[in-house]
Amino acid sequence: MTFLPSEFHAAMNRAHAGAREWIDSIPGRRVAPSANIDEMLAVFRGPLQEQPTAPADVVDELARLAEPGLMAMPSGRFFGWVIGGTLPASLGADWLVSSWDQNAAMRYASPATAAIELVAGEWLVDVLGLPPGSEVGFTTGATMANWTGLAAARAYLLDRVGWDVNTQGMQGSPPISVLAGAEGHTSVDLALRYLGFGSPTRVPADEQGRILVDELRVALRASESPVILCLQAGNLHSGAFDPMAEAITLAHEYGAWVHVDGAFGLWAAASPSLAPQLAGVERADSWATDAHKTLNVPYDCGVAIVAHPGAARAALGTQTAYLMRAEGNAPDPMDLTPEMSRRARGVPVWAALKQLGRSGLASLVDGLVSNAQALATELATLPGVLVLNEVVFTQVCLSFGSDDRTREVTSKLIADGAVWMSGSRWRGRDILRISVSNWSTDAGDVAFSVAAVQRAMR
Ligand SMILES: *Cc1c(COP(=O)(O)O)cnc(C)c1O
């Protein structure tokens, strides 16, 4: 088999055409997919054929057949879960990353991607107002970014009590108390599970889901072992932020490691008008966030940030002779993330920040919040609609009266498909949940979405 640039050109041209068709369809298309999973399986399933297929034909078939089963997640009218769209520069950069096909594990192996990711990390630490010198790893998402921060915490706290978790493991280790707010995200629970901690001790939260500092004090007093405290910047339902300054100061009095899950909410720190809600967050020990949510880079990209130089590497680093290292003692990318081999997913982050600049990033975040507030204000004027949360960030939770009625409106809206919002249950009620996470949502999308909800109500 021969490396033929022309074969790449043909496949890439088809990909380009298919991608353009998709992007061109976004402003006008229904958000919901028109085919369900069973229909898509019927399209794709079948025995693998015996003979090869021309690369361009493979790409062409893929683009054509997949289209009905795609959700328009890049649309400004998509408000499901917490899912961002894609900035043009990031999409272009992501294509380059695939074409370059670099294994981003080591500085020695790929100086270009290592440098770009290092700079993207420095820019992130800067725009988020975190301590200079914090170390940054690019993970698949916030789940693994949470895992990374918590793995660093585990190694660090156990080391302080004379236990090397890397060699001695968790069986028979000194105990660690893990505290988390009552409305912490399930991905923190997953990360704790992967690390052998089991479930955290839940600290009660207020009606917006913010951890209660008095209750935290009680929990800290009761802990007889080193503590990891998991805080949250951006509640999945209300968007609320834990009281960072108070909670972190208090936890540090008890020698705790404070980890902040800021998957989408940490980006508030990049906006001068929103940052005060997060004041003090920079004093935590580690942070997890997602670039594929609020920053709007293509899937996937999470960001793990650790304030203590060397702590992530102590937990995640490795040393064997065949991995050739660059000169000097700086960590390689693979020392700061769970993976060894991975794509250079920090490059689209660099591109997003370069496209936006500081002011563009602040406007992006401010814009999401003002659209969320506009949706909440306009929807609240409809008869029987209740906005259940204080809209302090990008999330809006609605009730239409009874749970039955809310579920009915939600399923009508989803069946209509012109916009997409998801259902959930929060504080004992069924809700329709809106997350404004797409950079391109504008006033037209807001008006269109209010009309779609009105239709679903009728
Ligand atoms: C989305 C989210 C996560 C999980 O992030 P993934 O990127 O899906 O791994 C964790 N915490 C919060 C608050 C989230 O919104």
Automatic annotation (TrEMBL):
Its cofactor is pyridoxal 5'-phosphate. It holds the Pfam family Pyridoxal_deC. It comes from the Bacteria. Keywords: Decarboxylase, Lyase, Pyridoxal phosphate. InterPro entries: Aromatic_deC (IPR010977), PyrdxlP-dep_de-COase (IPR002129), PyrdxlP-dep_Trfase (IPR015424), PyrdxlP-dep_Trfase_major (IPR015421), PyrdxlP-dep_Trfase_small (IPR015422). Belongs to the group II decarboxylase family. This is Glutamate/tyrosine decarboxylase-like PLP-dependent enzyme. It comes from Subtercola frigoramans. The lineage of its organism: Bacteria, Bacillati, Actinomycetota, Actinomycetes, Micrococcales.
